[in-house]
């Protein structure tokens, strides 16, 4: 499987180095470079022909919008994923309008960043559930251009919740009066839509999204 060539950009050395240590454990990523966001010339970034650029614009006077536009519209376009501690809806909407494919708050766990990477590089995009609706109200251009974050059909949602609760495919099939084969097909489609791998990841997603209670 071809790995995702990834660049990390932040003005803060500690942020870049910590991200590198965390993300180098992800087998699907090929970490190509860690660069200073403000000091690096855009041409240098474009010459690396990366698939994904994870950008932390927090400590820079540059808002990141121009960089994002250049990254996503160049000869070798890359996906841009924003990692930021500033999650004001208008700011997030502006970055998405510029062409970013996702936004992850710095308060998020590492698993959420990895989910976002999978969603973005899988020709999707990512916003945490708590930001999705409010950002759409603030960012008309982006809202009109993008589909909802991850849309599950009512049947997929029911199956996802039951599986996340720890029920087996057979138990789900009996409860919903469908075949085990149908449950398995839905499960595979749900996991692909959400960019997840394994039932533990599905359970974490359902918990964070509020679909199942903590207890």
TrEMBL record:
Name of protein: Two component transcriptional regulator, LuxR family
Keyword terms of this UniProt record: DNA-binding, Phosphoprotein
Superkingdom, taxonomy of origin: Bacteria
Organism: Geobacter sp. (strain M21)
Domain HTH luxR-type: residue ranges: 145-210
InterPro entries tied to this protein: CheY-like_superfamily (IPR011006), Sig_transdc_resp-reg_C-effctor (IPR016032), Sig_transdc_resp-reg_receiver (IPR001789), Tscrpt_reg_LuxR_C (IPR000792), WalR-like (IPR039420)
Xref: SMART domains: HTH_LUXR (SM00421), REC (SM00448)
Pfam assignment, any one: GerE
UniProt GO BP: phosphorelay signal transduction system; regulation of DNA-templated transcription
List of residues that carry 4-aspartylphosphate: 56
Record-level Gene Ontology MF annotations: DNA binding
Annotated Response regulatory domain residues: 5-121
């Amino acid at each position: 499987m071809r790995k995702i060539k990834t660049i990390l950009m932040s003005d803060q050395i500690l942020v870049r180095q910590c991200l590198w240590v965390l993300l180098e454990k992800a087998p699907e990523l090929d970490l190509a470079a860690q660069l200073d966001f403000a000091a690096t010339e855009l041409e240098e970034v474009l010459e690396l022909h990366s698939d994904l650029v994870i950008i932390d614009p927090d400590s820079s006077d540059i808002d990141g919008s121009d960089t994002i536009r250049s990254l996503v519209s160049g000869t070798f376009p890359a996906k841009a994923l924003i990692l930021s501690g500033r999650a004001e809806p208008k700011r997030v909407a502006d970055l998405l309008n510029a062409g970013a494919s996702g936004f992850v708050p710095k308060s998020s766990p590492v698993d959420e960043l990895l989910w976002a990477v999978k969603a973005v590089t899988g020709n999707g995009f990512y916003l945490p559930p708590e930001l999705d609706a409010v950002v759409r109200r603030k960012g008309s251009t982006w809202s009109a251009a993008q589909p909802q974050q991850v849309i599950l059909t009512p049947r997929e949602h029911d199956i996802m919740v039951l599986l996340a609760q720890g029920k087996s495919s057979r138990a789900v099939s009996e409860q919903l009066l469908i075949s085990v084969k149908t449950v398995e097909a839905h499960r595979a489609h749900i996991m692909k839509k959400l960019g997840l791998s394994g039932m533990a990841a599905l359970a974490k997603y359902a918990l964070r999204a509020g679909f199942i209670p903590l207890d």
